[in-house]
Write a structure and sequence with these properties.
- The chain has 18 helices and 27 strands.
- It has a seven-stranded mixed sheet with strand order 2-6-5-3-4-9-8, sandwiched between helices. It has a seven-stranded antiparallel sheet with strand order 20-21-24-25-26-19-27.
- A hairpin with a 7-residue loop joins strand 25 and strand 26 (493-503).
- The longest helix is centred in the last third of the chain and has 16 residues, at 513-528.
- The structure holds 1,6-di-O-phosphono-alpha-D-glucopyranose.
Amino acid sequence: MSLRTIATQPFPDQKPGTSGLRKKVGAFRQPHYLENFVQAIFDSIAAPQGATLVLGGDGRYYNRQAVQIILKMAAANGFGKVMVGRGGILSTPAASCVIRKYKTFGGIILSASHNPGGPDGDFGIKFNSSNGGPATETVTEAIFAKSKTISQYRILDAGDIQIDALGNSMLGEMTVEVIDPVNDYAELMKSLFNFPAIKALLAEGFRIKFDAMHAVNGPYAVEILQRRLGAPADSLMNCVPLEDFGGGHPDPNLTYAHELVEIMYGDNAPDFGAASDGDGDRNMILGKKFFVTPSDSLALLAANATLVPAYSKGLAGVARSMPTSAAVDRVAEALNIPCFETPTGWKFFGNLMDAGKVTLCGEESFGTGSDHVREKDGLWAVLFWLNILAVRRQPVEKIVYEHWEKYGRNVYSRYDYEGLPNDAAQGVMSHLQASFGTLSGASFGKYTIKLCDDFSYTDPVDGSVSSKQGVRIIFSDGSRIIFRLSGTGTEGATLRIYLEAYDADISRHTLDAQVVLAELLKIALDISQLRQRTGREQATVIT
Ligand code: G16
């Protein structure tokens, strides 16, 4: 077994996006592509000799090959031990849990999250720090800078390492410990929630349907929902993880999780429905013929947090990404706790949680979580809801209507225009930025613009500034239109329009969100010139 130093050339396109580097599998399979990025990580994070790393991914196509390459590179770069999930599997929240529990130096997570997988699909890689959370922008920028000047990488010349049976083996001087990917996470969940109450609810015939979308959460759901909580086997669907997610798009929203949506909107629907994504960190919550928006879900969890053992003493504070609706702000105000507004990206919550400023965080992009780990957490959100349902014994929709009655309703919807030509999408954003002067104070029907700007965030803990985080059009009644370019796509540009209108009138709370938001949508399309500039009449996904 010898250590080899391989000469290489930089790739110009290794800039991490909202959550790590995501590209087509074909890009990652180019000679040296993955190796360059991994070496750039190792060169940037200054791990001490003999440090321990966690490694695992969502099991998508190329996961196993990447695990082998990274193990050999870790051994050649002075790591003392790598804890790898059996079969190379770890959901993103489970990886965060393991990093924290065993106090490792950090971890590498292989995932392109909700993006499709397979030979023609996407792959991704990111580094998480010792707090279990995604590396901060300072670190990802350092990785990108290294990737642009890299001239060599180090790798051990060795055969493949077995990763399918628990236990230790040696790779050069480094220990490879294959760990159970589910157990530590399942124990953590048990410590947070009232498992006996949820078990009793399910035993009384409360029916649930959980869709793992053939992605990583399948084995986690089987262990926790079925084995530990006693849900019948037919409560779970698509729980066998597949390298291509069965050809599906493992994104738990109304469009891509349609199999579950049809069940929950069909005859004899279960009482509660939920789905999670490719790497297990996103969640969608449904009642009978009822969709809970992620923004409302966050607000509801905050308002009901004391029903859950782990949060029974209350919350230190809450945080949401800027495009997420202000529903949680209203709860924070009532609870008299701080509420932080951050840019899109879970990495921005890490400092706030580490500093003890927030307990719960969430994003409109189907992400909810707490300081139990430093990633958003799909099954955690499902268990939180089940815990609330087990205590309140009311239907999901009743709980949501009662919430709106108390706090008002932040009617919300997001329009995604996927696969746009980059120039056209950038043109829409530049046009909006150039229009700030004329838009300020302008009126459109009942709406008057109070403020328009590019959102900028100063981290209250380390003072770092992140600018150009999306265009905000804020109206005098608090309604908002946000425009943002996604940082997670791999083909062309994805432009997102987020619409939000506040409505305190309970007689209107049963109205469909699209009806309430129709006027705002028209304003958004008019002022952005989106149709003229992109030639796109309809959004690809509406949530
Ligand atoms: C990632 C980030 C989230 C972000 C989401 C959407 O989620 O972790 O914080 O909200 O992308 O980002 P964008 O709007 O830039 O596409 P995931 O689940 O893909 O890791």
